[in-house]
# Entry
Amino acid sequence: MAESLVLRGGTVVHTDRLAREDVLVVDGKITGVGIDIEAPSDARVLDASDCLVGPGFVDLHTHLREPGGEEAETVATGARAASLGGYSAIVAMPNTTPAIDCAAVVAQVLTLGRLTGIDVQVAGALTRGREGHSLAPMAEMAALGVTMFTDDGMGVQDSGLMRRAMEYARGLGVVVADHCEDEALAGTGSMNEGSLSARLGLEGRSALAEEVMVARDLALAELVGCQLHLLHLSTGRSVELVVDARKRGVDVSAEVAPHHLILTQDLCSTYDTLFKVHPPLRTQRDVDALRLALADGSLDAVATDHAPHPPQSKDRPFADAAPGMLGLEQAFALTREALGGASADPIRIFEVLSRRPAAIARLRTHDARLGGHSAHGGDVEVGDDANLCVVDLDARPIVDPERLASRARNTPYAGRVMQGAVRHTIARGDAVVIDGEAQR
# Structure
């Protein structure tokens, strides 16, 4: 059994209020919430003074690279980075080698996930090998508890195949998640298409490539009646399409990555490949629109798109470098910054980092098929599974790539002062991070 813990002196972020309360954890469950709560004599006391205490974060979009890309990341190192970022659960994307496109590979990653300190869920591929030609055996993966399917890294270009995937997913009761980019429009572009890309002599990647596929998949989801989740939206127009679709009754959720809330295409002017990502960094106008959409509920979740790469994949000319950047350890601070910094609403922060992602990934309840993972995104009430994080709003850490838990170092935030930091993370009733230090 997990040890007894008591979080003292924090402000608990419930779904509808903030309250100065202690939280008692015994045998993996929250057994007490209140002021100056009495704890067992052997309980470990964790200081939460001047901190927010809320449900552990849930990342809908983590690249763990294993199997096949262990040079950049493993399930173990990615989970450790996630715990330091306040995450009690993550969803591993299927673009590995081999792809997570069958029960055997799903089982492999789930087994590795059980050896970590947090819950690791798996997203299965929509098509075999993520090649976009034929459907993957979704039913056999769903039987292992997989609830989300995606060919992340590329969109399914064949509209007829995407329709069949949605129909199959509807029958299975699972979520189709899509990387929205029309490859014919995106081409081999390496940054946002516009006057800046032309001036820099870099081939542009059109915003229209994203928006056309967003419109297509919303129309298909409306026709088929399946649950659709849109990955890492990066333009204001994409959000407008989602809002309009919801008005028509389409069952759609959408996420945004921290880098699309914080960074703009102007950073590509240095030709620093740390700022190369797909979809690319956009304009300040898009950043402003995404921030507004996150604040008003048009966007459901912040998902990191944590994409580790070995140095040799980034140490290339901009056009040839691998796209992607790290995101797990700084996501809280960046989300807070995007939502207004010191004036950000704590309830909204935990909504987009924990409660809505947990609901989208179907992690609000136990599922024995996923290795007996516990429930996430709760209201911090007695009886909830003890998946919690404690964040220090006054901390101002400076990002040092050499101190990151990931095997990779491709962070675009090196030297940046963060607005807040995770102090403790509790996952499955265990303190996996204490005072900013990983315990396993």
Summary: The two ends are 17 Å apart (CA to CA). The chain is about 30% helix and 20% strand. Residues 91 and 97 are 17 Å apart (CA to CA). Residues 207-224 form the longest helix (18 residues).
